[in-house]
UniProtKB/TrEMBL annotation:
Originating organism: Erythrobacter neustonensis
One Pfam family in the UniProt entry: Abhydrolase_3
InterPro entries noted in UniProt: AB_hydrolase_3 (IPR013094), AB_hydrolase_fold (IPR029058), GDXG_lipolytic_enzyme (IPR050300)
Record's protein name: Esterase
Molecular function terms from GO: hydrolase activity
Length: 312
């Protein structure tokens, strides 16, 4: 059941800085093409994109560990004092088709410093050059490696957008496998239904400065390959109630000018109905993955709530 404690409106109006950033975003080249045809054209025969490099300054600010798993780079940042009691696996967003963005690195750094945690970032391969199954395989390998060395109950899974999908999907696969489970789950503007089936999403689309329904459906179909878009392994919004009931305490952060707000609310209702300790934090006028816009009041509040969630 949804209650005031389940959904919290953390910001009644966008901050001045957020308004300015959104205005600038409208004037810039969009991150994703604005329609399905443009998306398909962009994916066809493109040059393989590469991950934004980690800033050199991080080597002075943090203890940096770099490894390779399944042929892909995995980066871990520890506080300068050493490995923290809580360890996060963070999956970056990008529609499964874009690599690590430059803005993701400052967000990762902010989580290390603000929350006092260690953070592992898998630089996973992207679709269509790789398959979505390859992304999941790397996620599974990173979890298995960390869980063998760190108390699983002190591991938090996190991700933004498509990365939120990956974090949740990993948690559900771990439940299905019957093994060790993460202690907590944090989702930043998660992409929960690759088909965006809910018609209510159309009312949000004019306000979203980054995402468009047609583009996302084309992207979702590319990621799903021949699988049904409403299959739980493709769209975790449709996971069974029994599976959802086994999830750890979960927090979701989404802006109200984000297409994914509709499915975030639906998913929260399903989680609460399954008895999960779950809450959704909403921010009026905030765009997709607003928590990466670090100077804003909204991002600072989101990171503060994440720190409280981990410390609780």
């Amino acid at each position: 059941m949804l209650t005031e404690s389940a959904i919290q409106l953390r910001s009644n109006a966008p901050s001045m800085v957020m308004r300015l950033v959104k205005a600038l975003m409208r004037c810039q080249t969009p991150v994703f093409p604005l329609d399905a045809e443009g998306f398909r054209a962009a994916m066809a025969g493109r040059t393989l994109p590469v991950d934004a490099p980690m800033p050199d300054s991080f080597r002075k600010r943090f203890i940096v560990e770099e490894s390779e798993m399944l042929g892909h780079k995995v980066v871990t940042l520890h506080p300068k004092a050493g490995p923290a009691p809580w360890h996060m696996i963070y999956f970056h967003g990008g529609g499964f088709v874009r690599p690590m963005f430059k803005v993701h690195w400052p967000l990762v750094a902010a989580m290390v410093t603000r929350c006092g945690i260690s953070v592992t970032v898998p630089l996973y391969p992207v679709v269509p050059e790789a398959r979505h199954a390859d992304q999941d395989a790397l996620a599974d390998a990173v979890w298995a490696d960390l869980a063998a060395r760190h108390d699983p109950s002190r591991i938090i899974l996190n991700g933004d957008s498509a990365g939120g999908h990956m974090a949740l999907a990993l948690a559900l696969r771990l439940i299905a496998a019957g093994g060790a489970q993460p202690g907590k789950l944090a989702l930043f503007a998660p992409w929960l239904d690759l088909g965006l089936a809910d018609p209510a999403i159309a009312a949000v689309e004019p306000h979203d400065v980054m995402l468009k329904i047609g583009t996302l459906r084309a992207c979702g179909a590319l990621v799903a390959e021949a699988r049904a878009l409403d299959a739980p392994e493709v769209s975790p919004l449709y996971a069974s109630t029994d599976m959802l009931a086994a999830l750890p305490p979960t927090r979701i952060w989404t802006g109200r000018h984000d297409l994914f707000i509709v499915d975030s609310r639906s998913f929260l209702a399903r989680l609460r109905g399954a008895g999960v300790d779950a809450r959704l934090y909403e921010y009026e006028g905030a765009p997709h993955v607003f928590m990466a816009i670090l100077p804003t009041r909204e991002a600072k509040d989101a990171l503060g709530l994440l720190a409280e969630f981990i410390a609780d």
